[in-house]
Write a structure and sequence with these properties.
The strands form 2 sheets. A 6-stranded mixed beta sheet has the order 2-1-3-4-5-6, with helices on both faces. It has 14 helices and 11 strands. With about 350 residues, it is of the alpha/beta class. It folds into 3 domains: about 130 residues, Rossmann fold, CATH 3.40.50; about 60 residues, 5' to 3' exonuclease, C-terminal subdomain (DNA polymerase, domain 1, Orthogonal Bundle); about 120 residues, 3-Layer(aba) Sandwich (Trna Endonuclease, Chain: A, domain 1), CATH 3.40.1350.
Length: about 350
């Protein structure tokens, strides 16, 4: 799936350099930043994360003129996560550098100065790595399952692996349960009393298993979950009556890149358009920049332009179910904390409607 990188912002000390141009070509907004301590190639991804790029030759030059070390001190003092990327081959033989000096410099970057040191083979890989780090820092890291995965040897093995996920259940217990009930479905439908008939399952374990198997799922896992809930129940965000105009509505940026707004509402009473951007995690400054771009380019949308030309006002809302204390600098952008419990209740209602309608939408 192609990821829209137009919401990402990177500040670069060399905005006209090859790496910055390649990042811009990917749709990332590259802003110039002035530095006072030398000709460095640096990329600021957030308040805490910075990347300094050095090719093999500029890495060696930095050792000779000591700028590698003065720059490392600056990064450590101003950023919580400083990263050094060494790009390409470090040709110490040609420059008469001793291998021990190279190893010492690399080691000191990590042990003495606290930098994470990464190596890339070429410029393209460096750019891809910077883009990935910017994406994860500003948009979040996709959830990773911590359950070890291995290829199942057959249907019986798949069934055992499913049952092994139950509380206090290992391979032996999974086999006992499957031999006793005959299928995963029958185990899921078993009562606590029936589960206790299996050797090794007492009152507590039976209760835990039954709860896992029968309890209603209550979680807001993705931004789409929150989007579904707010679309179905705008009262999660608004006290006043509003009308949903569009979902996943796109506007074009100055670079003619598509930018997708999660939800667009009209407040008829206030004669105001409301652009809503939903986040599962905490709201950050980057999210504020993101919705600010949506507001700045809203007039390029045929749907929104029709309202704006009639004098309709406009503002933006950043919404999440996570508690956060971020407050936007812009008066036309606000942060709303959506009640998690109410959101889950709406998601349950949507599940029930789908079930009554005969299946998923």
């Amino acid at each position: 799936m192609t990821v829209d990188l137009s919401t990402l912002i990177i500040s670069a000390t060399k905005p006209r350099g090859k790496a910055a141009k390649l990042l811009g070509g990917m749709g990332i907004t590259v802003l110039p930043v002035e530095e006072d301590e030398g000709n460095v190639d640096r990329y600021i991804l957030s308040k805490r994360l910075v990347i300094e790029r050095r090719t093999g030759s500029t890495f060696l030059r930095g050792i000779m003129d000591k700028t590698l070390f003065t720059s490392a001190i600056y990064l450590r003092e101003h950023f919580r996560i400083p990263v050094l990327i060494v790009e390409g081959e470090v040709d110490y033989e040609y420059t008469m550098f001793k291998p021990q000096a190279i190893r010492g410099a690399l080691s000191s970057m990590m042990l003495q100065y606290g930098l994470s040191v990464l190596a890339t083979p070429n410029l393209d890989e460096t750019v891809q790595l910077i883009a990935m780090m910017a994406r994860q820092e500003q948009m979040g890291i996709p959830d990773i399952s911590l359950i070890p995965k291995r290829k199942a040897t057959g249907l019986a093995d798949m069934q055992r692996r499913i049952v092994e996920m139950l509380p206090g259940c290992g391979m032996v217990m999974a086999r006992e349960l499957l031999q006793r009930f005959g299928s995963v479905t029958r185990i899921a439908n078993a009562t606590e009393a029936e589960l206790r008939t299996v050797p090794g399952i007492g009152v507590r374990k039976a209760r835990q298993m039954h709860e896992v198997l029968s309890a209603e799922y209550e979680s807001v896992d993705t931004e789409k979950n929150l989007e579904d809930a707010v679309e179905a129940a705008p009262r999660l965000l608004f006290k006043q009556p509003v009308t949903l105009l569009a979902r996943q509505h796109y506007v074009f940026s100055e670079e003619k890149e598509r930018q997708f707004v999660d939800l667009v509402f009209l407040d008829p009473g206030a004669d105001e358009l409301i652009l809503v951007e939903l986040k599962r995690g905490k709201i950050t400054r980057e999210h504020c920049h993101q919705i600010r771009r949506y507001l700045d380019n809203a007039h390029k949308s045929r749907l929104l332009r029709g309202f704006l030309e009639k004098g309709t006002g406009m503002r933006g809302i950043l919404a999440t179910v996570e508690e956060c204390d971020y407050r936007p600098d812009h008066s036309d952008v606000s942060v709303c904390i959506v009640d998690r419990g109410r959101t889950i209740a709406v998601l349950k209602q949507l599940r029930e409607r789908r079930a009554d309608a005969g299946g998923p939408e």
